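Tip: read the tokens left to right.
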């Protein structure tokens, strides 16, 4: 057996200790100091270590036991049927690996067979075990440690969806999930706020806290519900398939979730997961994935169990909005206005379905607030359409000897000795030399980028080539390039050089708002540029605007107004604009339509986009809204008219509901655009 590196052993011990600490808080005391998604990420890491080094597996590893212990103060119940938890999969590849293991194990006893899989929703609630004797409910218990649970019979009896007697007088043990709806949670938290009590973080914690009340009247007041999903033991003949088992329980009067499907193959099971990944968050109960079970009972019996989980079933989690990873480095990035942004370089990790290896740390104050250091394990968040953000540091996993990050005194990329300065009144630092090569190249990257002139084929590497070879010094130089200029550069052939020059010529016609984005005026992004283009119609009128006039525009405050007027006041910027006017055709479509006297159907309507749209990209949606006279905002406020909610909608959707803003699903949005 290969030797296990000491660094791996140290990481393993720290992971084991941290996971058990947070799991105990969550399962025993209903305290969620780390999200379950982040905890899943740590559990996944320790499982990978054990898979690579089986000799390291400790008997107290989180992978070797069922979470939780009976809470002191409740009567203990020893389960007649052992309780298990599922192993987890986090990607289609891991599901296919599980499928291959299932078939390999079945091959010895049944030959080459193709099991089917029953796919069910994985409800995020509190597991309960219900025991019926001669058709009457006798005991309801929590899962506890899998062998001993807590007697919560009186509280469970307050849930109307739990039958006190079955349709037949049989002995049976069933398992299910107690849950609380989002609406009930909202109402409960309002009551707790009025009473000066802390709110519950999520419906799962609320359900668990309600079931663990010693007074059944409290549980009865909280509108809990239940879904039953499995038969652990029965005095009757066992159904032959999982699908029949759900029907069997329904016949007995037990509530079963209606959303399940038999999959003919693992690809069908993955398809079920894909469909619910997009709409799972829109249910009244929380869903954190699906459960796939081998459908045929004879195959289930043959596959059996490991020490903690069934081999015949697996939980396929939805992409986490939170995950854990390790900070490998902290690098300062020079922006287009010379502002320095610290960026954490991370061990790649999948968050919300995409692989992330970078996260902004915003500024020096944020680094100090988080106390984030190189080598730290951090919780990364990417909720809905929000960019990756480091939420907190898991300090229990901090390497020995780590040192706090020290903000540098000099940054070589800033040129002229690398001098930097803190911007007065702000947390940000910037290069003293605002024309260093690093700053200039970022400005050029922005100028040709997709939200500005969007020059096809002129990416960051090509821009750097042009600058390094002295072919461009100012923006207008781009439009004087010929095929012969770019052909000698590395990576260019005659056809590619010809295509680039053609793309540059095509981009000469540019909308005013896009040009304003491309100029790298401090504080002027896409939304602000749209406001300025609508208000001033031409770049000459904008250049003459005074600060007082600008700051009275809705959405533009005194800081933005000052930066705009100061930018246009500089003679070099006036010369830059004059030179660009010679090579560009600057248009303003919204102004042209309005001046033609044609009413714009979405005039003065403010839209906010959240989530992913199937029929168009985010940029296409924005363009269509603006072409019809509407405005697009990045945040929801009382002045928002519509929130367009696509798949995986983020916190903006919740804010819209809170403020009573009209919400448009994608089909409604398309109909509105089409009149």
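Filled-in amino acids:
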């Amino acid at each position: 057996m290969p030797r296990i590196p000491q660094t791996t052993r140290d990481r393993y011990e720290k992971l084991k200790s941290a996971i058990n600490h947070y799991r105990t808080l969550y399962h025993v005391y209903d305290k969620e100091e780390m999200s379950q998604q982040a905890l899943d990420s740590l559990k996944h890491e320790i499982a990978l270590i054990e898979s690579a080094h089986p000799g390291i597996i400790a008997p107290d590893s989180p992978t070797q036991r069922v979470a939780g212990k009976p809470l002191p103060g409740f009567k203990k119940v020893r389960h007649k049927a052992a309780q298990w938890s599922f192993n987890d999969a986090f990607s289609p590849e891991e599901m296919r690996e599980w499928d291959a293991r299932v078939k390999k194990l079945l091959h010895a006893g049944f030959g080459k067979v193709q099991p089917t899989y029953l796919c069910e929703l994985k409800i995020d609630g509190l597991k309960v075990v219900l025991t019926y004797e001669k058709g009457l409910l006798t005991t309801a218990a929590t899962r506890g440690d899998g062998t001993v649970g807590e007697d919560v019979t009186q509280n469970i009896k307050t849930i109307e969806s739990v039958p006190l007697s079955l349709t037949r007088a049989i002995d049976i043990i069933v398992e299910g999930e107690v849950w609380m709806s989002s609406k009930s949670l909202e109402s409960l938290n309002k009551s707790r706020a009025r009473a000066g009590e802390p709110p519950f973080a999520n419906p799962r914690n609320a359900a668990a806290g309600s079931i663990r009340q010693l007074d059944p009247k409290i549980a009865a007041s909280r509108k809990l519900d239940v879904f039953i999903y499995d038969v652990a033991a029965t005095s009757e003949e066992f159904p032959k398939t999982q699908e029949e088992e759900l029907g069997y329980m329904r016949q007995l009067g037990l509530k079963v979730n209606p959303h399940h499907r038999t999959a003919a193959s693992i690809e069908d099971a993955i398809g079920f997961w894909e469909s619910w990944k997009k709409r799972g968050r829109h249910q009244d109960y929380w869903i954190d994935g699906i459960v796939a079970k081998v459908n045929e009972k004879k195959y289930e019996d043959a596959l059996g169990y490991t020490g903690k989980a069934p081999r015949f079933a697996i939980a396929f989690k939805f992409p986490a909005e939170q995950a854990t990873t390790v900070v490998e480095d902290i690098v300062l990035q020079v922006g287009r206005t010379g502002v320095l942004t610290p960026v954490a370089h991370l061990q790649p990790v999948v968050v919300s379905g995409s692989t992330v290896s970078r996260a902004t740390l915003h500024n020096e104050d944020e680094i100090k607030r988080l106390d984030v250091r190189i080598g730290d394990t951090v919780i990364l968040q990417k909720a809905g359409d929000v960019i990756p953000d480091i939420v907190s540091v898991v300090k229990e996993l901090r390497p020995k000897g780590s040192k706090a990050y020290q903000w540098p005194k000099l940054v070589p990329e800033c040129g002229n000795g690398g001098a930097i300065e803190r911007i007065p009144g702000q947390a940000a630092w910037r290069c003293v030399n605002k024309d260093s090569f690093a700053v200039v190249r970022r400005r050029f990257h922005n100028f040709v980028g997709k939200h500005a002139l969007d020059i096809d084929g002129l990416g960051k590497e090509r821009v750097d080539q042009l600058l390094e070879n002295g072919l461009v010094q100012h923006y207008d130089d781009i439009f004087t390039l010929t095929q012969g200029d770019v052909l000698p550069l590395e990576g260019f052939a005659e056809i590619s050089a010809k295509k680039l020059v053609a793309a540059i010529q095509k981009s000469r016609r540019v909308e005013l708002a896009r040009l304003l984005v491309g100029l790298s005026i401090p504080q002027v992004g896409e939304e602000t540029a749209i406001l300025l283009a609508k208000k001033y119609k031409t770049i000459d009128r904008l250049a003459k605007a005074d600060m007082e006039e600008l700051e009275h525009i809705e959405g533009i405050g005194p800081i933005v107004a000052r930066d705009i007027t100061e930018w246009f006041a500089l003679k070099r910027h006036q010369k830059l604009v004059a030179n660009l006017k010679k090579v560009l055709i600057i248009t303003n479509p919204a102004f042209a339509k309005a001046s033609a006297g044609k009413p714009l159907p979405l005039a003065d309507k403010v839209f906010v986009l959240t989530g992913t749209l199937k029929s168009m990209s985010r940029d296409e949606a924005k363009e269509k809204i603006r072409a019809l006279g509407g405005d697009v905002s990045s945040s929801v406020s009382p002045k928002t008219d519509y929130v367009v909610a696509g798949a995986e909608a983020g916190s903006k959707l919740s804010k819209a509901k809170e403020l009573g803003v009209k919400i448009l699903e994608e089909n409604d949005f398309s109909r509105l655009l089409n009149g």
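The chain has five domains: 6-64, 76-317, 322-422, 437-593, 600-673. Residues 6-29 form the longest helix (24 residues).
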